[in-house]
Protein: peptidylprolyl isomerase
Organism: Glossina austeni
Amino acid sequence: MDPEKSSNSSFEDLSNESDIKAASENMIKKEKEAISEETKMSIKDNEGTMKLSDIADSDSDSGAPASVGDEEPCDILGNGQLVKRILKKSKLKRRPMRGELVTVNFTGTLADGTVVEKEETLQIHVGDFEVIQGLDMIIPLMIVGEVAEVKVDSRFAYGSLGLKNDDNPELSIPPEANLIYEVHLIDAIFEDFADLKSYDVRKKYGTRKKERANFWYNRSEYSRAIQLYRRALEYLDDRDGDPDAKFDKEDIELTNMELQSLLDDRLIVYNNLAMAQIKISAFDAALQSVEHVLRCQPGNSKALYRKGRILDGKGDTKGAISLLQKAATLETDNRAIQQDLAKLIIKARREDHNEKEMYQKMLGQAKKLEQKSKQAQKQQIVESSKLKLLGYLMGSILIGVAGVAIYRYKY
């Protein structure tokens, strides 16, 4: 039932907004300093009166051609693991924002020049882990129309796992490989909620997010997979994408067939999301995910199986057995279900045995306590009897002594 699992990679999630913002500010400052220095050097003494502001205005003119220059590399993180160098400047000033749809061309090579990745007119959403982390961090620092060379440490590329190329094994990316990319940022578009109402757009984006989430899941990068599965669900919803809107059927016009298609995809994503959440022991969240599936498809064997695993993780072994038995009747040839069911039955017997032993121990301790209590009571009775006997004896002696004293006194 589980997607194929790979060993842990060395990815580290540093692509949050604060990291990108800090890196962006650092790079922009360096670019401004470099541009200012170049501008000053380009002013000739005999031209005298030209102002720097006039030069800046002329550079930003829409008719100015994009320049090609030998720019100094910019160390984004300050440790040499992510370095950007502009190969071709853009005459525009717009940088893409996180979440915007961008179109890029890029070519990735190893240190020896072997081309291992190449994409043309690839569309992605910035910050959605649809490319390697290094590129996801660099793209918001580029200007639309710019071409840049990016040196990416393996930590922000494919880590200790590398990337296998099944079609051409010679072009596989080895583990711990540093990569060099040439990236051309073609376009960046802000999508309004109105742009996301068509079936084709929702199907396209939802499917793309789901497939990329599966990629991260198979690399054991469960947190990234969860984020992309959730993003896929946003697009596969049959309502308007505005989270603050009140939804009516008129918000998005879809045929019954289109609605069913989105629903089927959405249930697949919920099932995969639950599996990723199980992997990080987020059992409560995973339970909510499978319940979404079972409300629509009570006989979904995968959802039943995963709910069984969730209940097992939460300590409800008997409940897990009941669900896995249902799943096993629906998929009689599924060995994974049969094996897990057998393990749970053995676990349940062991738990019953342990409970019996615990009860016996508790009962034995209770009997011992009862015996000790009875013995203590008997001891108290004996001691009390001895004291009474001693009291009677002393009383008798005193009476006798008193009688003798009285007799002698009289006679």
About this structure: The chain is about 55% helix and 10% strand. The two ends are 115 Å apart (CA to CA).
